[in-house]
Amino acid sequence: MNDPEAYPTIVALSSAPGRAGVAVIRLSGSRVRFVLETFAGVIPEPRRAALRQLRDADGEAIDQALVLFFPAPASFTGEDVAEFHVHGSRAVLARLLVVLTALPGVRLAEAGEFTRRAFEAGKLDLGAVEGLADLIDSETEWQRKQALRQMEGALGSFAAEWREALLQAMSLLAAELDFSDEGDVSGPLQEQALALAGTVLGSLRKALGSFAMGERVREGFVVVLAGPPNAGKSSLLNALAQRDVAIVSPVAGTTRDALEVRLDLAGLPVILIDTAGLRDSADPIEAEGVRRARNLLARADLALALRGIDSEPYQMDGETPVLRLATKSDLAGTPLPGELPISVKTGAGIPDLLAAIIERLHAFGRSEPALLTRERHRAAVADAIMALERAVSAEHGQGELLAEELRIAVLALERLVGRIDVEDVLDRLFSGFCIGK
């Protein structure tokens, strides 16, 4: 770890690129102290900002900076870490990075390398790393809350509690085997072990129940606008997006492909999709648009079924939850039972529509942030649940077989937090980070 050639000190711009009032250059590694002495003249007091003149090897001033030093192991990466808070000029940043990387043992960081070093140093478990990635990408309040909970280690804490309880149950089964010749020992110990496994099983089932909501908050709820041509789908998309996204025309069949916008509805991330009008068409391009619209409807979390208030009723098939709308309510006509009348032209009914969408999406789960947010989480917890279900429902009473089921569950939980079998996950995950993180 301390060999600068084998494990170099890394440096990167950690703030957003481009012109700004302040930018942050971050370093991590064994040569951080040398860099500070070389460019700032002195190593600042740990975790206290100091104003310093940064100079290159020839003594020429580069910029004035606030310099921070975080000595190992009390740092984000577990290594010595430094930050230079400089003026956000492209020229300053370019010069500073050139000068820093000219030093032996110092190179530009790769995507996510700071966080990867934090993971390898045990500062973050895999769930917290994923939470950090989601926090950086968060766009809505619910996404922020959920990601922050993950980054602060909620999943790792629960996984540690589950694992500890199962290890305790395994020790009870081991004691039963050790004292199998004692007639009054095996029954109570096995019962205690299975009781612990049952408690963990219940907690895992509860966590798995939150997955659907957690995944949707992380990726966005899919809400599809559907209905016959000229029902007002494109007009409604533009009104909800508050900008011109779709072409609005009285000509039927204008929308051929799916158009989508991302909305923040009371903190919920929503992907709103406008689709082709649902009708039979001899036009092969329009027919393909209708086919795609039906496929999107089948995968949607909510469908907004639009019908012009002055047009004939129509039936929408499928199992997707539907919110029925009578559009163009400023025209003559009467909404059908169960339809919400709206008018894009006057704005009538739009607030009620937004409230109804939010209410329907809230029905997916509880209001608190979910514990499981990725398919990887769901798969690991599902594997643990299946192993524990086999254990608690077994009638054979064989301690060795019960212990093996508990061991399988423990291994699944260790995959959940990144103790084992995570290299492929790490490569994909860190490649999506920005360079300075």
UniProtKB/TrEMBL annotation:
<keyword id="KW-0963">Cytoplasm</keyword>
<dbReference type="InterPro" id="IPR004520">
    <property type="entry name" value="GTPase_MnmE"/>
</dbReference>
<feature type="binding site">
    <location>
        <position position="255"/>
    </location>
    <ligand>
        <name>Mg(2+)</name>
    </ligand>
</feature>
<dbReference type="GO" id="GO:0005525">
    <property type="term" value="F:GTP binding"/>
</dbReference>
<feature type="domain" description="TrmE-type G">
    <location>
        <begin position="220"/>
        <end position="362"/>
    </location>
</feature>
<feature type="binding site">
    <location>
        <position position="437"/>
    </location>
    <ligand>
        <name>(6S)-5-formyl-5,6,7,8-tetrahydrofolate</name>
    </ligand>
</feature>
<feature type="binding site">
    <location>
        <begin position="249"/>
        <end position="255"/>
    </location>
    <ligand>
        <name>GTP</name>
    </ligand>
</feature>
<feature type="binding site">
    <location>
        <begin position="274"/>
        <end position="277"/>
    </location>
    <ligand>
        <name>GTP</name>
    </ligand>
</feature>
<dbReference type="GO" id="GO:0005737">
    <property type="term" value="C:cytoplasm"/>
</dbReference>
<feature type="binding site">
    <location>
        <position position="251"/>
    </location>
    <ligand>
        <name>K(+)</name>
    </ligand>
</feature>
<feature type="binding site">
    <location>
        <position position="249"/>
    </location>
    <ligand>
        <name>K(+)</name>
    </ligand>
</feature>
<comment type="subunit">
    <text>Homodimer. Heterotetramer of two MnmE and two MnmG subunits.</text>
</comment>
<feature type="binding site">
    <location>
        <position position="230"/>
    </location>
    <ligand>
        <name>K(+)</name>
    </ligand>
</feature>
<keyword id="KW-0479">Metal-binding</keyword>
<comment type="similarity">
    <text>Belongs to the TRAFAC class TrmE-Era-EngA-EngB-Septin-like GTPase superfamily. TrmE GTPase family.</text>
</comment>
<dbReference type="InterPro" id="IPR027417">
    <property type="entry name" value="P-loop_NTPase"/>
</dbReference>
<keyword id="KW-0547">Nucleotide-binding</keyword>
<keyword id="KW-0460">Magnesium</keyword>
<dbReference type="InterPro" id="IPR025867">
    <property type="entry name" value="MnmE_helical"/>
</dbReference>
<dbReference type="InterPro" id="IPR005225">
    <property type="entry name" value="Small_GTP-bd"/>
</dbReference>
<dbReference type="InterPro" id="IPR027266">
    <property type="entry name" value="TrmE/GcvT-like"/>
</dbReference>
<dbReference type="InterPro" id="IPR018948">
    <property type="entry name" value="GTP-bd_TrmE_N"/>
</dbReference>
<dbReference type="Pfam" id="PF01926">
    <property type="entry name" value="MMR_HSR1"/>
</dbReference>
<keyword id="KW-0342">GTP-binding</keyword>
<keyword id="KW-0630">Potassium</keyword>
<dbReference type="GO" id="GO:0003924">
    <property type="term" value="F:GTPase activity"/>
</dbReference>
<keyword id="KW-0819">tRNA processing</keyword>
<dbReference type="InterPro" id="IPR031168">
    <property type="entry name" value="G_TrmE"/>
</dbReference>
<dbReference type="Pfam" id="PF12631">
    <property type="entry name" value="MnmE_helical"/>
</dbReference>
<protein>
    <recommendedName>
        <fullName>tRNA modification GTPase MnmE</fullName>
        <ecNumber>3.6.-.-</ecNumber>
    </recommendedName>
</protein>
<dbReference type="InterPro" id="IPR027368">
    <property type="entry name" value="MnmE_dom2"/>
</dbReference>
<dbReference type="GO" id="GO:0046872">
    <property type="term" value="F:metal ion binding"/>
</dbReference>
<feature type="binding site">
    <location>
        <position position="83"/>
    </location>
    <ligand>
        <name>(6S)-5-formyl-5,6,7,8-tetrahydrofolate</name>
    </ligand>
</feature>
<dbReference type="GO" id="GO:0002098">
    <property type="term" value="P:tRNA wobble uridine modification"/>
</dbReference>
<feature type="binding site">
    <location>
        <position position="123"/>
    </location>
    <ligand>
        <name>(6S)-5-formyl-5,6,7,8-tetrahydrofolate</name>
    </ligand>
</feature>
<keyword id="KW-0378">Hydrolase</keyword>
<feature type="binding site">
    <location>
        <position position="254"/>
    </location>
    <ligand>
        <name>K(+)</name>
    </ligand>
</feature>
<dbReference type="InterPro" id="IPR006073">
    <property type="entry name" value="GTP-bd"/>
</dbReference>
<feature type="binding site">
    <location>
        <begin position="230"/>
        <end position="235"/>
    </location>
    <ligand>
        <name>GTP</name>
    </ligand>
</feature>
<dbReference type="Pfam" id="PF10396">
    <property type="entry name" value="TrmE_N"/>
</dbReference>
<comment type="function">
    <text>Exhibits a very high intrinsic GTPase hydrolysis rate. Involved in the addition of a carboxymethylaminomethyl (cmnm) group at the wobble position (U34) of certain tRNAs, forming tRNA-cmnm(5)s(2)U34.</text>
</comment>
<dbReference type="GO" id="GO:0030488">
    <property type="term" value="P:tRNA methylation"/>
</dbReference>
